[in-house]
Design goal:
The complex is a heterotrimer of chains A (about 160), B (about 375) and C (about 350). With about 375 residues, chain B is α+β, with helices and mostly antiparallel strands. Chain B has helices spanning about 45-50, 60-65, 70-85, 90-120, 125-145, 165-190, 195-200, 205-210, 215-220, 230, 260-280, 335-340, 340-345, 350-360, 365-370, and strands at about 5-10, 25-30, 30-40, 155, 160, 300-310, 310-320, 330. In chain B, α4 (about 90-120) runs antiparallel to α5 (about 125-145) and α4 (about 90-120) packs antiparallel against α14. The model of chain C has no long low-confidence stretch (mean pLDDT about 85). Classes of the chains: A alpha/beta (about 160), B alpha+beta (about 375), C mainly alpha (about 350).
């Protein structure tokens, strides 16, 4: 199905929650309201003519003044795809989990949470994934400052001083 | 009078069958595993953060370190993503070369899978057989780009070297030699009663589960879903070649068990040989790399490109802000979701089954941890 | 053995001046030492041979650097292991941990006391020889449990528990099969069992009542592979599952003892299989070529040829097959081997009555 047709269907059901289709090249993305993300995703996965049955990838993202969660969805039966982007404020980045729709989101969200400090509400297993449990800070944010030391071990090498 | 409690046991990070540094914390009741909790991240090198600090061109060697058994596929997938972002047309000869090397690397990677899967189940001999053949593939790589493991062969817009004159002859010789070897593997391991007992009906992943966990590649096809990026989203001229997509059919057990995931990979090797033969025959002459400026600045935009790698889909999501460095680069690898399903599949299995499940998923840790 | 002692006592004058019990003791010790030496040598050579066979099976060379064709490899391995640090984990129960290797080592060698290598070469011809072997080989379980439990490592414990379950289960078909042999021979003495199979290849117990004895031999052979924990039944030390099973924590010479006892056990079960089914030291043709006392050499030759052939088969199997799962292993034992061994027992019984 064409991307515009999918957006029309979504707009019919969710109205204002669908903010805009950003015509970036080469892949356009659909900006959506973060508060309705679970509804939108379950609609996308359950509506038979859309049938987005897999989550290709979920990524966190730092837009500078805002954070974002990007959902790349794909339908194995209809062979079409869509990119959703939900923008979050930087002071309290929280969004509902889509883990109940695609379990693959479990680990993707854990990674986005530790790397960007995004809270996924109702996530069943909010532990860190790749980092150690006691790592401080959100390393993938653009303003992240690399720590001087960790548990007393110096982390900076002379080469980093430049 | 007697209390029983579950035994918590650490499988890994240093354990012979966790394929690197995967750590599984098992709760076991005797031999039965009641809960599996995977811990990953021991190889986390922050590749996505590094990507934001280096230029597009400089990032190419880092992609080698994602999936060291299929570095070619990672190279090309990254190059493909950047090309999609910048709208670069890859010359036909480079496309053909990419197909040839992707498929050769798929054979090499599946051979390692064949060996280690046998090894996990206690059969030592398949590993050595597989490495004998893998050596020949690596020699073909060495002949072309000089490296044997981390090739750095892809370039944005093409490949780095053209093939040497004797490459075609030696590749065809390898193909002729290799196809009968697959029969030998089947005699040694595939149809072996013990092997079938160990893998059939073990670690069954239903179609529904496979979709919900976004499994990709052979793991998805082992569950009976016919989906192959080379067929369904053809790139680099894959649509020109005639090949089948093997799907798990549950010959010995149910669809989606460990045996099916294994069998799909064995069949894929034959298909890869077919593609290599056709690609060599159709290889056009011409440039091997498109004209890409030295100071490479893709236009503002974002692209998600994925290619079929031995472990499923290797995808790169790149957001460009018009500078020399990506604003955001996200890597999607096949093993990531492959491991995330292990808690669900491993529940209720025996310890030995868990080894078979992990073995049949063909996971590789560096591409999970990135 | 007594024949040899008597021969020397009657023919060598000096020995008559010493009390007979001292001569007897000296000869016994010498005999035990010789058997220990032969078995230990086999453990070493066996490991080299196995690695060479594995090499050939796996399309590679195997050890080929130390000594001619790599035959001295086991000496290099031995020296390496002796020089390594003998690690004793902190969490282990020290005393049983230290004890277990000696235990398993002793038990492995004890079986050789009653094995008849030839007409005369046998340490002790016990009249309950087979019963002795059954009991001695069950003690291995205790040694393995001791090693696994005392290591203070969960993987070791797993290995030990698996091993205990496995060895005890597989004792049952083995014992029932041995019962059939005792029935055919009418004796429990190893020497007399061998003597009962004289007169050429068709008189061997394996071909006595072929319909039942050939399956009986196979049951014994399969079960004995399981008893010595080798692939496809090597679940107690399954390296891809349990790291190294019950000997995970052992290093240095203590580890070497486990390794040696494994090979000695392989030799022992093969020797017993040969004695019970393949005519022991009997040649495949009736009678023997060498006259008098020299026929012992012929006996030795045939005994070791047959034994090494069975050992080779075990190695061949090991490097070809994957490993069974623990429940499948038990299924095989209780649902296949045990019924078959019962059928064999009754079949042989009926055949003997009717014939």
């Amino acid at each position: 199905m064409e991307i515009n047709r999918i957006v029309e269907l979504l707009k019919d059901s969710f109205g204002d929650a669908i903010i805009e289709l950003a015509e970036t090249k080469p892949d356009p993305y659909l900006k959506v309201n973060k508060d309705r993300i679970t509804d939108i995703c379950s609609y996308l996965s359950q509506e038979p003519q859309l049938g987005f049955d897999t989550l290709m990838i979920l990524s966190g993202m730092d837009l500078g003044d805002k954070l974002a969660v990007v959902y790349h969805l794909y339908s194995l039966q209809h062979k079409h795809r869509i990119v959703l982007k939900a923008e979050l404020p930087k002071d309290n980045p929280a969004v509902h989990t889509v883990e109940s729709i695609w379990q693959a989101a479990n680990w993707f969200e854990r990674e986005a949470a530790e790397m960007y400090g995004i809270t996924f509400i109702d996530h069943p297993d909010p532990r860190k994934l790749l980092l150690t449990e006691d790592w401080i800070g959100c390393p993938m944010r653009k303003d992240y400052v690399y720590p001087e030391s960790w548990h007393g071990m110096p982390l900076k090498r002379p080469a980093d001083e430049k | 009078m007697f209390d029983t409690e579950e035994l918590v046991i650490n499988m890994g990070p240093q354990h012979p069958s966790t394929h690197g540094v995967l750590r599984l914390v098992l709760k076991t009741d005797g031999e039965i595993v009641s809960e599996v909790v995977p811990y990953v991240g021991y190889l986390h090198r922050a590749l996505e953060k590094i990507a934001e600090r280096v230029t597009y061109i400089q990032f190419m060697p880092f992609t080698d370190r994602l999936d060291y058994l299929a570095a070619m596929n990672c190279n090309f997938a990254y190059a493909g993503a950047v090309e999609k972002l910048a709208g670069i047309e890859v010359p036909p000869r480079a496309q053909g070369l990419r197909v040839i090397f992707s498929e050769l690397n798929r054979i090499a990677s599946h051979l390692v899978f064949f060996g280690t899967c046998g090894l996990d189940l206690g059969a030592w001999t398949p590993l050595l057989y597989a490495f004998r053949e893998r050596e020949m593939v690596l020699e073909l790589f060495e002949m072309t780009c000089g490296a044997r493991l981390t090739y750095n062969y892809g370039r944005i817009g093409g490949v780095s070297f053209d093939i040497p004159p004797e490459f075609e002859k030696e590749t065809l010789e390898f193909c002729d030699y290799f196809v009968p070897r697959i029969k030998e593997y089947n005699e040694l391991l595939t149809g072996n009663r013990v092997f079938v007992h160990r893998t059939a009906n073990v670690g069954v992943i239903s179609q529904e589960q496979a979709k919900r966990y976004s499994l990709v590649g052979p793991n998805l096809r082992g569950s009976g879903i016919k989906f192959d990026l080379r067929k369904d989203e053809p790139y680099w001229g894959y649509e020109k070649y005639d090949f089948n997509v093997p799907v798990g059919a549950g010959e010995y057990g149910v669809v989606g068990d460990a045996w099916n995931r294994y069998w799909v990979r064995i069949l894929e090797m034959t298909e890869s040989v077919k593609i290599i033969r056709q690609a060599l025959a159709q290889l056009p002459s011409g440039d091997i790399i498109a004209k890409v400026p030295k100071v490479f600045k893709p236009p503002v935009g974002e692209a998600y490109f994925r290619a079929e790698s031995p472990r499923g889909e290797t995808g790169f999501y790149i957001v460009s802000d018009g500078t020399q460095k990506p604003s955001r680069l996200r890597i999607r690898t096949g093993s990531f979701t492959g491991v995330s399903i292990i808690p669900e599949v491993g529940k209720g299995a025996m310890i030995s089954d868990l080894v078979a499940i992990v073995g049949s998923m063909d996971i590789i840790l560096p591409e999970i941890d990135r | 053995m007594y024949d040899i002692i008597n021969y020397f006592v009657t023919n060598v004058k000096i020995l008559q001046s010493i009390p007979f019990w001292m001569v007897q003791a000296a000869f016994m010790l010498a005999g035990c030492g010789a058997v220990l030496g032969v078995a230990a040598l086999f453990a070493g050579v066996g490991s080299v041979v196995e690695r060479n066979i594995a090499g050939r099976i796996q399309a590679r060379y195997g050890p080929n650097r130390v000594g001619p064709w790599g035959w001295m490899q086991f000496l290099a391995d031995g020296i390496k292991l002796v020089l390594k640090e003998d690690l004793i984990p902190d969490a282990s129960a020290k005393m049983p941990f230290r004890l277990a290797p000696y235990f398993i080592f002793t038990v492995a060698f004890a079986a050789f006391i009653v094995v008849p290598f030839s007409q005369k070469l046998q340490i002790a011809d016990l009249n309950i020889g087979i019963l002795y072997i059954i009991s001695v080989s069950s003690i291995v379980v205790i040694a393995i449990l001791l090693a696994g439990w005392s290591s203070g490592n969960k993987w070791s414990l797993f290995g030990a528990m698996r091993s205990a379950a496995q060895i005890i289960s597989y004792e049952v078909p083995v014992t029932i099969t041995i019962l059939a042999v005792i029935m055919m021979a009418g004796t429990m003495s190893m020497q007399e069992i061998t003597a009962g199979q004289s007169g050429g290849i068709w008189r061997w117990f394996i071909f006595r009542y072929p319909l039942f004895t050939i399956p009986a031999f196979l049951v014994y052979y399969i079960a004995s592979i399981a008893e010595v924990n080798r692939t496809p039944f090597d679940i107690p030390e399954a390296e891809s599952e349990l790291v190294a099973g019950y000997h995970t924590e052992y290093s240095s010479m203590r580890f070497a003892m486990f390794m040696m006892s494994e090979y000695v056990n392989v030799l022992a079960v093969s020797a017993i299989a040969v004695t019970m089914f393949l005519g022991g030291w009997q040649s495949p043709y009736p009678g023997h070529i060498f006259p008098g006392i020299w026929s012992n050499i012929e006996g030795l030759f045939w005994f070791f040829s047959k034994t090494f052939f069975l050992v080779f088969l075990m190695m061949w199997i090991r490097w070809t097959l994957p490993r069974y799962r623990v429940d499948q292993l038990m299924d095989l034992c209780w649902k296949v081997l045990l019924p078959v061994s019962f059928i064999n027992l009754f079949g042989i019984c009926a055949w003997m009555l009717l014939a």
